[in-house]
Amino acid sequence: MAVKKKKKVVSKKVVRKKVLKKVFISFDFDNDKRLKNSLVAQSKLPRSPFEIVDCSLKEEAPMRAWHIKAKSKIKGADRVIVMLGPKTHKAPGVLKEVKMANELKVDICQIIGYVDKDCPEVEGAGPMHYWTWDNLKRLLG
Asked: Would 96 be classed as within a structural domain?
């Protein structure tokens, strides 16, 4: 009598991987690291519609090397988010990143980082939005 082997049934469950928007965060490196860190933490939440691909770089490297690296990171993003603080509109690195994003035609918007401080807009950085979960989902979903 032959022994029948049981066939192993493999589930054919279709798993769809959520496609996340790739975001580059532009922020005032000297004054608003907390804003950047908070947005990075928010991107790691299970239902987040976005992931952070990179963020502003400290302009310590030689200018040409900094420019090449920043441009490469921005080019790989679906959207640039400028995190607005009180001095962001004067931050040289932010102004250069906004210019690069516009030249590369990468979508760009501004998120108001503080409700209790005046956060002037950065010229050319797209529309301003309050920092709410619903706004992030709408902008990046």
From this structure: yes
In angstroms, the CA 32 to CA 66 distance is 20
**C-alpha count within 13 angstroms, C-beta hemisphere, residue 5:** 3
Task: Work out how many domains the chain is built from and give that number.
Answer: 1
CATH number of 30's domain: 3.40.50.1220
> Does residue 4 belong to any structural domain of this protein?
no
Per-residue pLDDT at 14: 45
Check if the beta carbon of residue 49 is closer than 8 Å to that of residue 20: yes
Structure tokens at 83: 């995190």
Say how many CA atoms lie within 13 Å of 70 toward its Cβ.
27
Nearest CA to 77 out of 141, 24, 39, 124 is that of 24
Is this prediction's pTM over 0.85? no
> Which domain range does residue 126 map to?
21-140
**Mean pLDDT across 108-125:** 97
Single-letter amino acid, residue 133: W
Asked, for residue 92, whether it belongs to a domain, the answer is: yes
